[in-house]
Amino acid sequence: MGFQQMHAQWISEHLERRQGERERRLREGHGHAEKAFVEKVWWPAFGHFRQLHPEYEVTDFKDGYRYLDFAYLRSGLKLAIEIDGYGPHLRGISRDRFSDQCRRQNDLILDGWKVLRFTYDDVCENPRYCQQTLQQFMGRWLGEADNLRQINYQERELLRQFLRAGRPLTPADICQTMGVENKTARKWLRQLLEKRWIQPASGSVRIRSYRLSLDAERLLL
Predict the structure, then answer these.
(1) What is the CATH number of the domain that holds 107?
(2) DSSP 60
(3) Between residues 179 and 144, which one has the greater pLDDT?
(4) What SUPFAM superfamilies is this protein classified in (predicted)?
(5) What is the pTM of this model?
């Protein structure tokens, strides 16, 4: 499925699990800026919405409730992602409101959250920067191997084939799914092997099939 279908399914699944104020906040709070983030930044960077929660409710130190634009929860990691616009409401913000926003972030950090903030302008005009920031963060905090380097679009599509298949793949599988010749498929697979995104699944002298490496599974799954 493409982005539009996956996004609609993701939001629908979260709405089904919510009621009251939490449901209302998701319906009203997941607006243009938030959708732009998942479409231009998150989806191209990761290709899924697993462990990502929109309009996530947290308690503050006054026993009140606040909502994060997004929360990524995985393996003990709590990452808050906020999208900041720049408009008349922000330029005219009161001192009290400004102080409250600073305290909000401090409260999150004291409660064990990591926080990443992106401007709406960067989301729309410089999404690659936002993607790289998220990928570097995930690599650092989720234990990605040091030599798992950045991958290009073609390599990302190959990794998605491994994720969809859920089994080892052969060069012939890549030829069929990607519509390329055997020589090209083997070249792409060698590149992923060198970057340690995949590892041999069968064959010793001549590798017959490949599977995702443990580091790649930890980062992508």
Answers:
(1) 3.40.960.10
(2) -
(3) 179
(4) Restriction endonuclease-like, Winged helix' DNA-binding domain
(5) 0.62
